[in-house]
Amino acid sequence: MANTSTDTRFMFRVVRGAWGLLLSSVVAFDVAAVEPSPVQEKVIMGWLETVFLLPAALPVTAKLDTGAKTSSVHARSVEHFTQQGKEWVRFRFQAERGDATITLERPLVRTAVIKERQSNSSTRDVVMLSVCKNGRVYETEFTLNDRSNFNYPILLGRSFLENVALVDAAETFLFKSDNDSCAARGTQDKP
């Protein structure tokens, strides 16, 4: 019959030896050869924030929605046209009732199928738009949708939020638009 005490000590030495080899190979690994990945600092934003729609630096109340993948912008009178052989869209945007309406033209990026609560699904045009927040310009995809029945003309979804912000659902307007340098940007940024 084998001596279990001797067998246990032998197994302990084997395991300890394997750990020693593993640790020595980790120590020998050249840490300086590994480039650190860039860390992008996320800010905490409320579930409502003011963003500035570029190029006009138009202040707009945006709802930050972690339940939506793609951002959405209020768009009326959407027209398709061709420019330099590519499909574009022209649409009218109004930040709030009573505000001036602006016309925007953008290349069509794609068409998205959107699941909706009351119906099965719908298709929406998708364009790239630039918004400015806290002095930084962000370009992200927006679906075009008539948001007249919604409280806010812009919805910022996960595709925008994932590298930019964490949302505090108990807060609104954590960053005051009066102090935001985005207000002065005007037409100096290209769309």
At a glance:
The protein contains two helices and twelve strands. The protein has 191 residues and is α+β, with helices and mostly antiparallel strands.
Shape: globular
Strand content: 35-45%
The separation of the N and C termini measures 82 Å
Task: Give me the number of helical elements.
Answer: 2
Which structural class fits the helix and strand makeup?
alpha+beta
Give me the Rg, rounded: 26 Å
CATH topology of the largest domain: Cathepsin D, subunit A, domain 1
Share of helix, binned:
10-25%
Query: What number of structural domains do the residues give?
Result: 2
The profile of the biggest β sheet is: 6 strands, mixed, barrel
Which CATH top level class of the largest domain fits? Mainly Beta
